[in-house]
Design goal:
Layout: H1 2-9, H2 12-46, E1 58-59, H3 68-73, E2 78-79, H4 81-109, E3 121-123, E4 130-132
Antiparallel strand pairs: 1-2, 3-4
Helix pairs in contact: 2-4
Length: 146
């Protein structure tokens, strides 16, 4: 059983998948930081001067709170749409970058169609059997060929 497990783990697909998951996790952190630390503060500034976009929320009990954390500490039901918008932007950026990577990989994979191989056989005009291209006499009907 241990031998089978070792063979399974050492397959190329499993190792490729492991590398992909690790790189994907690291890339996700980079994109999340880009969105949270760079893009969302700019959007928040444009939309009303609030630098922390994740603090955009609606308190469903009708009261107003200074921050999302204050509303949660008070036990108020909140609709925290700022965090959702941040996650959507995160997803769109990651999906776009993955699209670009796949597009680049597909471009590299495209190769010109293979040229057809030169024929190595021909058909005897007398008996219609397949013979070698260089044959001067048909081995089936013994006719002379041109």
């Amino acid at each position: 059983m241990l031998k089978e497990f070792r063979e399974f783990v050492m397959r190329g697909n499993v190792l490729d998948l492991a590398v992909g998951v690790i790189v994907g996790g690291a890339f996700g952190k980079i994109v999340s930081s880009l969105v949270t630390d760079v893009i969302m503060p700019l959007i928040g500034l444009i939309l009303g001067g609030r630098a922390n976009f994740t603090d955009y929320f609606i308190a469903l009990n009708g009261q107003t709170y200074e921050t999302l954390q204050a509303a949660k500490d008070a036990g108020a039901p909140v609709l925290a749409y700022g965090g959702f918008v941040t996650a959507v932007i995160d997803f769109v950026i990651i999906a776009f970058v993955i699209f670009l990577v796949v597009k680049a990989a597909n471009t590299l994979k495209r190769q010109p169609p293979p040229t057809p191989a030169a024929p190595t056989t021909k058909e005897c005009p007398h008996c219609f059997s397949t013979i070698a291209l260089k044959a001067t006499r048909c081995p089936n009907c013994t006719s002379e060929l041109k």
